[in-house]
Write a structure and sequence with these properties.
Strand order of the largest sheet: 1-2
Radius of gyration: 16 Å
Number of domains: 2
Strand content: 35-45%
Largest sheet: 2 strands, antiparallel
Number of helices: 1
Structural class: alpha+beta
Order of helices and strands: HEEEE
Shape: globular
Length: 90
């Protein structure tokens, strides 16, 4: 059975403007292969290879008092691996 170790995790309530600014900066850093994640004293840097798997998932979950939506964007890679099919924004 595969073992997963969470190296960094963060969750915060914020607004759409902050999220878009974060995603733009993250995209720039991925392009430069200079991604450093920081929260307080916790810091992790990661090299993002050219060949990735991009997973995009939109979920709807029924909650006690309504519906909760989530949009997940995940990058996956293995050293020497190959990416999957393509997705586009519409």
């Amino acid at each position: 059975m595969a073992r997963e170790i969470v190296l960094f995790s963060s969750e915060e309530r914020t607004d759409r403007a902050r999220v878009t600014a974060f995603l733009r900066e993250l995209a720039d850093r991925i392009d430069q292969n200079a991604v450093v994640l920081r929260k307080g004293q916790d810091e992790h840097s990661v090299d993002i290879p050219d060949d990735l798997v991009l997973e995009v998932k939109l979920e709807e979950e029924a909650k006690g008092q309504g519906v909760k939506y989530s949009l997940e964007v995940e990058l996956e890679w293995t050293p020497g691996g190959s990416g999957g099919g393509s997705v586009s924004l519409g």
